[in-house]
Amino acid sequence: DAPPFLQTQWLNKRVCGDINLGCQNCGICDDSLGYNAHNPQMGRNHCPNRTVLGILNQNGTFAEYMILPLKNLHLVPEGMKDEVAVFSEPLAAACRIVEQSLTHFRYENGSERKEAR
Q: Over the chain (117 residues), what is each successive 10-residue block's mean pLDDT?
């Protein structure tokens, strides 16, 4: 049986999962380096030993059930349709590209410029 807080908060709930899994042992994950004060998700996103579901040293999912750490779960709002919720992770990935300034623009004259922050 799961502990009571898990049963009420997570059991039988619709969730989306963050695909980045930090090692939980390095200075970034445990915040002994002090990087995570303003961004608690930084550890799993920037861990040098991280795995990424279906991409880097972690099997992907095409199953009805799977296991992820609780800190990687995000509740899907009650009114949100499944057809919308499934785009949470791809949208998050797109936002990370913009956040990391990895977007490139090509002008009509063919020149290319990387947009800097």
A: 77 87 83 65 73 84 78 91 91 74 62 54
